[in-house]
Amino acid sequence: ESIDLIVTDPPYKIQFTGKGSLAKKFDYRKKAIEGIGSNPNFELTPFLEAVRPKLKKMNMYVWMAKGSIPETIDWIRKYNYFWDLLVWSKINPLPAYNYKYLSDIEYCFYIKETGCHWTKKLPYETYKKVMTDHLQSSPEGHPTPKPLWMMAKLIKVSSKEGDIVCDPYAGSATTLVAAKGLKRNYIGIEINPEYVEIGE
In 3-state terms, the chain is what percent helix, strand and coil (to 5)? Predict the structure, then answer.
């Protein structure tokens, strides 16, 4: 009961269906599948249960794959939390194969209970649920970073200066950089030394 807000991007499994030269071009994305940036054994519900008692009140943004949406809704209903679904619409998604639509959106659940902070009177665009930007991955860094401005927006809306923002899967520290820039206190947890080095 000490944390004001959690903003995190857990290591959910990433699907990669590229072939041939395109697979070669986006080879750095394979790192995520091989375990550097994702964990095929990661279970979302136990994670949600683990962080719930750490919050003063339920107040969390958690990014996830499409397949985790049903279990998340079930978990939210169990506690009767308020929720909303935000999406990152990618301008430059990877090409699609096997009769599938492009993977051009990522999902972010906003889960909260009554009494959490909500910042009013920010610019109109701040409250839009669809956030548009290009794919952020790069061969040199973390394979699946989120845009800094996007994480800053979530922090700005759902916390105030001096609050404690936590990211239990800090990666290359995008959430923490955003929190610091907005004069929030922050806690980041990351076990992968590669990402810790990037974050520093």
Answer: 35, 20, 45
